[in-house]
Write a structure and sequence with these properties.
392 residues, nine-stranded mixed beta sheet, 32% helix, alpha+beta, globular, 20% strand, single chain
């Protein structure tokens, strides 16, 4: 286990090799970031919180079994599922960038909860942070469509009353997740698409951008590599570092949270698939597929093969298995992600949180970038397969 104590973004003390060696033997490879305390009380039950929850996460859910990754969690985020980042192929700078990006998103949500904000505001803040980070496929880092444009999707849901809002195919909203919340709170609709969604967001004061705002060199290179691959070019150019990076963050970012009143919320945002047809919409803006939240069951945000998650009604099915099938959050999420969706021909992952703070992040894909915050303020980030092995 590698532990990086830090205050904010700075290391608070130097690493010590004896401590690291002992920790690695004791608990495997995991990064935790102690960060103050959170608002709200402890969850019920006698499961350990904070560092003990981290140790539970370090052990991980064994392959072939369903058990929670952690307990007493108040907020979690994901940065996409796909081909895993490999520890021996990832530079320290790149590792730090991914871990910092996930941790910054958690902190953005934590600030909301610390001042007594609700879970909807917390997941919106967390996802906005990921949308503003070009490492992730949402907002600034959104992938290109086949015609070299950008079309973004997002959704948000409140567990207390099943209110939800979503946007699809937006081309000029800086933060699609905030547009989704506007649809939920300031319109009679659940989903707005295309130009109508862009206009609605602008009329309600959201920041708008031109298409070139979303552009990044890595995403452009990934589009070029995808077109070469689609044309039958299996050369090294088609397997460029940019293309690999694109595979490593398949499609989505998201967040789930519970607030001091134990109200649940979930949010998801994406740029979609590299080289997708213009007009393609996946699971991310669809309530019950990419996003779902219901008090008494689960807040869930999904990432992976969008068409499969749509056909499998992934996140709603997790909730239904808990409500009508009597399963706990880990068993329900495992059932959907590991047993059901792969039979439809796709893979991916989900972050799932219940009202007691039980958290699970099963995935059938090789990797899934994610992080979570426990009640004592500990932030845990997981980006490598040895930290979060795929479930089978």
């Amino acid at each position: 286990m590698r532990t990086r104590p830090r205050t904010g973004k700075l290391l608070s003390r130097p690493w010590t090799l004896p401590v690291l060696a002992a920790a690695a033997v004791a608990a495997g490879l995991l990064t935790t970031v102690p960060y103050g305390t959170t608002g709200g009380g402890r969850g019920d039950g006698d499961a350990p919180a904070g560092p003990a929850a981290g140790r539970l996460a370090a052990a991980g859910a064994p392959q072939g079994k369903a058990r929670p990754d952690a307990r007493h969690v108040v907020l979690a985020v994901h940065g996409g599922a796909g081909t895993a980042l490999q520890r021996d192929e990832t530079s320290p700078e790149r590792e730090k960038a991914y871990r910092d990006g996930l941790a910054d998103a958690v902190r953005a949500g934590k600030k909301v909860l610390d001042r007594g904000g609700d879970s909807v505001s917390a997941v919106e803040a967390a996802v906005r942070s990921l949308e503003d980070n070009p490492l992730f496929n949402a907002g600034k880092g959104a992938v290109f469509t086949a015609d070299a444009g950008h079309e973004l999707d997002a959704s948000i849901m409140r567990g207390s009353d099943l209110a939800a809002g979503a946007v699809a195919g937006v081309r000029h909203v800086r933060n699609p997740i905030s547009a989704a919340r506007l649809v939920m709170e300031k319109s009679p609709h659940v989903l707005l698409a295309g130009e109508g969604a862009d206009d609605f967001a602008a009329r309600n004061g959201l920041a708008t951008v031109t298409q070139d705002y979303y552009w990044t060199q890595a995403r452009w290179d990934a589009l070029m590599a995808a077109k070469k691959k689609a044309g039958g070019d299996r050369s090294a150019a088609a397997r460029s570092s940019a293309a690999l990076a694109d595979e490593q963050a398949k499609g989505t970012v998201g967040a789930v949270a519970r607030d001091g009143k134990r109200n649940l919320a979930a949010a998801t945002s994406t740029g979609g698939l590299t080289n997708k047809m213009s007009g393609r919409i996946g699971d991310s803006p669809v309530v019950g597929a990419g996003t779902y939240a219901k008090n008494g069951t689960v807040a869930a945000s999904a990432t992976g093969d969008g068409e499969i998650f749509l056909r499998g009604a992934a996140t709603a099915t997790i909730s239904h298995l808990m409500e009508f099938g009597g399963k706990d959050v880990a068993a329900a999420a495992y059932e959907v992600l590991v047993k059901r969706l792969p039979k439809l021909g796709g893979d991916g992952g989900v972050i799932a949180l219940d009202g007691r703070g039980t958290f699970d992040a099963p995935h059938s894909s090789e990797g899934m970038l994610h992080a979570y915050l426990t009640e004592d303020g500990t932030i845990v980030t997981k980006i490598f397969p040895d930290e979060t092995p795929p479930n089978t």
